[in-house]
């Protein structure tokens, strides 16, 4: 049986208004493979590029300030609660909610219902975090080996002098479901698009090579996959499937592009349901999966 939940919902006061959240749901491509009824081996997992809570971002209207702090906190609480996630993966994460001297820790204020957490370090725009209400083992930050190879010191950001390749990493953990190990991976690939930046292709190839030997794997995050068919083909050839197989299912509804960037890549588990949770709290929508290990 999956490890017992340690907490059961955020439980903020009833007086706090909870806004309805729009949902887009797609069914798995092969419903016949699904079990007839849910069982104790099912769990909910979500991934969201949270956009640094608008920390210093002029394009994001959700920045926390002294004047709007209480309201914004309720909005984020309501949205995160609506995901219903046992495991929550965040990209473009920051450990602080406010951008002035009154910085407030996210863990304390917003995500206290998640007792298990690994918050990776912030490297320019890239920062990943993994929160969980269920037991995880061997939780650790991992570096892409390809970032340290031919790409090291090659792609320099002229605005700040940082090395692009070394900004990106992933978080790896083990989830035990009824005695069966599931590899859980939270990542955010390099920005530019898999069709424009060969670094992304190298990162994808490295993930496929590393995790192809495991029986059960869930990889999730912002894949920056502008060429969705090519991205899908890469993983399918490596023995993986996408929870969202439709390029028209938008997760990045920005003013410049409308793309499907956020997804789950998996093998050895069953996708029971996939949803996109629309919001204006970030330039990305969260995606949520109900999964089972049979």
Class from secondary-structure proportions: alpha+beta
CATH architecture annotation: 4-Layer Sandwich
Secondary structure: number of strands = 15
Q: Summarize the helix and strand pattern as letters.
A: EEHEHEEEEEHEHEEEEEE
First CA to last CA: what distance? 11 Å
Name the poorly predicted regions: 3-38
Superfamily at the CATH H level?
Endonuclease/exonuclease/phosphatase
**CATH level-3 fold name:** Deoxyribonuclease I, Chain A
**General form:** globular
Major sheet: arrangement of strands: 1-14-15-2-3-5-4
Rounded radius of gyration (Å): 18 Å
Largest sheet: 7 strands, mixed
Hey, roughly how much beta strand do the residues contain?
A: 25-35%
Q: Give the CATH level 1 class.
A: Alpha Beta
Explain how this protein is built.
By secondary structure, this protein is α+β, with helices and mostly antiparallel strands. The chain has a single domain, classed as Deoxyribonuclease I, Chain A (4-Layer Sandwich), CATH 3.60.10.10. It is built from four helices and 15 strands. The chain has a seven-stranded mixed β-sheet with strand order 1-14-15-2-3-5-4, with no helix packed on it. The radius of gyration is 18 Å and the shape is globular. The model is unreliable at 3-38 (pLDDT under 50).
